Amino acid sequence: xxxxxxxxxxxxxxxxxxxxxxxxxxxxxxxxxxxxxxxxxxxxxxxxxxxxxxxxxxxxxxxxxxxxxxxxxxxxxxxxxxxxxxxxxxxxxxxxxxxxxxxxxxxxxxxxxxxxxxxxxxxxxxxxxxxxxxxxxxxxxxxxxxxxxxxxxxxxxxxxxxxxxxxxxxxxxxxxxxxxxxxxxxxxxxxxxxxxxxxxxxxxxxxxxxxxxxxxxxxxxxxxxxxxxxxxxxxxxxxxxxxxxxxxxxxxxxxxxxxxxxxxxxxxxxxxxxxxxxxxxxxxxxxxxxxxxxxxxxxxxxxxxxxxxxxxxxxxxxxxxxxxxxxxxxxxxxxxx
Length: 337
Fold this sequence. Notes:
Mean pLDDT: 93
Largest sheet: 4 strands, antiparallel
Low-confidence stretches: 1-16
Distance between the termini: 51 Å
Strand content: 35-45%
Helix content: under 10%
Order of helices and strands: HEEEEEEEEEEEEEEEEEEEEEH
Shape: globular
Structural class: mainly beta
Number of helices: 2
Strand order of the largest sheet: 3-2-1-21
């Protein structure tokens, strides 16, 4: 009877780890000029490197640009003579196709990179999706992909600089340039809706990662990007992937939420559901070390350094579930390259 009870308990957990399940974690390493790298895991907690570069960056701005606020000609910041691939975000569409977006330039770009693959090995020709167009800004950072099952479309969220003349009092608590989140939607990665503002907490914020807990139940994990100080993570909630979002304490705009997690200088969150808990991974970049917390309600967060292992130098990516057969194909391909 005890065994039957245990089996029933395990079967009631959503998305349990099984012998058919594996996970791939997209990654880049500094400097970000080499391209897409992978980690893999069988349990979602212990990760190993899948050797090789799986997609070398071929697109992005490597010429001068006009600063949106000063009108001055600027050179792209960091690696100005080379293409870069930062913050690779991946999602699997309903037809099984993997879609990848990434940051193509630290400064001097108004779009993000895009490519697709049937197997995580062979990738389509890279393109820049110029989402900001004529909207004044100097960058498009950390695009994050989400598939909206209800609307049957993809949602892409990113962060871009805002005009310093529009800074709030809360923005001014930090010393770095300030960002807000934007989003677009697409069904085919050919036609995109005009960019719109996404969640705005009233202060410098980036790295919005969206997840669905259930019908009309969405969580957005956000980085408070004010520095020095702050620079940690918090969650907001909505009954729609398009917002509006609110903190658990309904903090007014410009007010720091009461519940945060991740030490100072944490960013690039992504989440994975294992049984009845969620694991939120994030990049702790001073010093460089990957962190994670476990949560069941996104209200309380337990650091779990003793439960995870992540290879050194792994940087800001997202996780996609694959079959063991697909992982075996990746391992075999990497071995024979």
